[in-house]
Design a protein that fits this description.
The complex is a heterodimer of chains A (about 325) and B (about 260). Chain A is mainly α and about 325 residues long. Chain A has 13 helices and 2 strands; from the N terminus they run αααααβααααβαααα. Chain A has a domain of about 200 residues. Helices cover about 75% and strands about 0% of the residues of chain A. Chain B folds into 2 domains: about 180 residues, Rossmann fold, CATH 3.40.50.300; about 60 residues, no CATH class. In chain B, a hairpin with a 2-residue loop joins strand 9 and strand 10. The C terminus of chain B is likely disordered. The chains are: A mainly alpha (about 325), B alpha/beta (about 260). Chains A and B meet through helix 7 and helix 8 of A and helix 2, helix 3 and helix 5 of B. Bound molecules: adenosine-5'-diphosphate (ADP) and magnesium ion. Adenosine-5'-diphosphate (ADP) binds next to strand 2 and helix 1 of chain B. Adenosine-5'-diphosphate binds next to strand 2 and helix 1 of chain B.
Chain lengths: ~325, ~260
């Protein structure tokens, strides 16, 4: 029953989202495109940070690398954009997989700091690679219409949510949740944790790169500082936490809420938007440690664990 | 045939020598009790065998295959399962999902998978709590979950680290019954347990660890009579006075009997 209700809700939201371009103006469509982009990015972050319990502070690396690589292949190597986009997404996925292998050996704060460094290092490499623009911005041909980009971004957001849904309802998703609960125990039941974590990181990278390649052609001008902006990772994290880490709807809800709040704040004053973000972070930490959707199973009843009356022996 | 062979195993934590020169082997199909006072190194030994921790010295063979360099997930898939003294469960998953995940990792799928999970939940008397989030289970139930999850790996060798701690007498009897059933199925077991009643009941053989060294090895009834075992548990003064009593009553011959290899 609950599943049917959720499906119905998801269909309604999607239908509403599909109606935005014909029924509203370019401004709303642009804001909507950005929200869809962040829903996709936060959804990707959720796979490694929410489901697997490895809070990455460097996911913007995949977004930025995706954008710059696609731009360079299209502008400097003259590939058709669709081909450049596919190559860039796959390349970034492999990049995430290979970097995940060493990085995911680290835990907790060490992992977070290492991923932060990864994003900065990727920015530095991109900035110093001539093929990738050598730190200069890149102008891409102006194509499409606001409506088209909205629909493409929306598709990526839907794909991101779909992947999360399929994962959560699969044994592979349970593998990731098991790793999040207790990695030693996960290994003790035969789970190849290195492979599981790295593939989750790679999926996260693929989704980040997809958003990046669409962002590049949508904006038609990209430069490294913009697409590697650390606050993009922070937004992914905050949106996911606010909506509910480890849930399907959480990242979408977070992206939409933060998106609306930011727009409202900008209407008041340009500077207010970062204030809203800051307040949002504080509110999440203080009032919603599990996010709006709560943790995956918190709604479910079941016996509460009683007082621990059985002291463990050394 | 020896299912497990441990040769010269040692473990240091920093400067602390926790295990030193441990050698023994387990015969297939037997149940061996591993006893010793708190801090003797029993849990550390289990961690080394199962690959959750790496030995500082020595070698471990499972069906003649070296284990000491394999990651623990490979060891688990070879059919060597364990439980943790301080419970380690997948708290975001339900009880059933905890058990199913283990059966799934060794390649069970579909109807067969579900049937096996049902069987294990029934065996460990957890069926009525299958849908409960494992974080909400009581500690004894979490311990049974760990046992069911270990059995889902279809182990040939099972390492049980104080699975029965905290059970009441009725639950204890059931647990002993369950372990005896597992033995009948041919599962080799190494059982860490403090309650001598349990050890005497289920073990074919008992080995004793004290301050990181194996100090006794033999039949359960022999081992509990050994002076060094009693010393390890009760302190040397108690044993000396006890031995004096026994000398008088002519039972002294029991002490120091047998330290033989099996
Ligand atoms: N990770 C560790 N780091 C440092 N010392 C440890 C660690 N694990 C266990 N020890 C020490 O090793 C000794 C043996 O511990 P343990 O194997 O848990 O004993 P037992 O299970 O027999 O009670 C203890 O002195 C304990 O403090
Ligand atoms: Mg112990």
């Amino acid at each position: 029953m609950k599943r049917q209700r959720n499906m119905f809700l998801a269909a309604c939201v999607l239908l509403l989202a599909l109606c935005i371009p014909p029924l509203t103006n370019d401004y709303i469509v642009q804001v909507g495109t950005e929200m869809a982009m962040y829903a996709a990015l936060a959804g990707g972050w959720n796979l490694i940070g929410g489901l697997t319990g490895y809070p990455s502070f460097g996911n913007v690396a995949f977004f930025g690398l995706g954008a710059m690589l696609a731009g360079a292949l299209s502008v400097n190597a003259h590939w058709p954009y669709w081909l450049a986009a596919i190559a860039s997404v796959l390349g970034t996925g492999v990049f995430a997989l290979l970097l995940g292998l060493p990085l995911l050996r680290l835990k907790g704060h060490y992992f977070s700091i290492a991923t932060l460094a990864l994003a900065q290092a990727t920015l530095a490499v991109v900035t110093n690679t001539k093929f990738l623009g050598g730190g200069m911005g890149m102008s891409l041909p102006i194509v499409g219409s606001p409506g088209i980009f909205y629909y493409v971004m929306l598709s990526i957001a839907v794909l991101s949510a779909l992947i999360t849904y399929l994962l959560i309802h699969s044994e592979y998703g349970n593998t990731l949740l098991a790793i999040k609960s207790d990695e030693v125990a996960a290994q003790a039941v035969g789970i190849n944790t290195v492979l599981a974590k790295s593939s989750a990181f790679a999926l996260s990278g693929l989704l980040g790169a997809m958003a990046g390649v669409v962002y590049a052609i949508w904006q038609s001008y990209i430069d490294p500082p913009t697409v590697f902006e650390p606050s993009i990772t922070v937004l992914m994290l905050v949106m996911t936490m606010m909506g509910g880490a480890g849930t399907v709807a959480g990242p979408i809800l977070g992206a939409v809420l933060i998106g609306i709040l930011t727009q409202l704040a900008m209407a008041v004053s340009q500077n207010a938007s970062s204030l809203v973000l800051g307040l949002g972070i504080i509110a999440v930490v203080l009032f919603l440690p599990k996010g709006i959707m709560g943790s995956r199973r918190s709604g479910k009843g079941g016996k509460r664990r009683g007082k621990n009356t059985f002291p463990l022996r050394g | 045939m020896a299912i497990l062979e441990v040769k010269g195993l040692g473990k240091d934590f920093g400067g602390l020598r926790v295990l030193d020169d441990i050698s023994f082997s387990l015969a297939e199909g037997t149940v061996t009790g591993l006893i010793g006072p708190n801090g003797a190194g029993k849990s550390t030994l289990v961690n080394l065998i199962a690959g959750s921790d790496r030995p500082t010295r020595g070698e471990i063979y499972f069906f003649s295959r070296p284990l000491h360099k394999l990651p623990s997930w490979r060891i688990a898939r070879l059919g060597l399962a364990r439980t943790f003294q301080i419970t380690r469960i997948f708290k975001d998953l339900t009880l059933r999902e905890n058990v199913r995940l283990a059966a799934w990792t060794i390649g069970m799928r579909g109807q067969k998978l579900e049937a096996e999970v049902d069987r294990l939940l029934a065996l460990t008397e957890l069926a009525d709590k299958a849908a409960v989030l494992s974080n909400d289970l009581t500690l004894p139930d979490q311990k049974r979950l760990q046992l069911a999850r270990a059995l889902a790996l279809q182990p040939k060798l099972l390492l049980l680290d104080e699975v029965m701690a905290g059970l009441n007498p009725v639950e204890l009897d059931k647990a002993i019954l369950l372990l005896n059933r597992l033995r009948q199925q041919g599962i080799t077991m190494l059982v860490i347990e403090h309650l001598m009643r349990v050890i005497m009941n289920i073990s074919d053989r008992v080995i004793v660890l004290h301050q990181g060294q194996l100090i006794a090895d033999g039949q359960p009834s022999e081992v509990v009579g050994l002076s060094q075992v009693q010393e390890a548990y009760l302190g040397s003064r108690y044993v000396k006075s006890k031995a004096a009593e026994m000398e008088v009553s002519g039972l002294g011959g029991m002490l120091n009997a047998g330290n033989q290899e099996s």
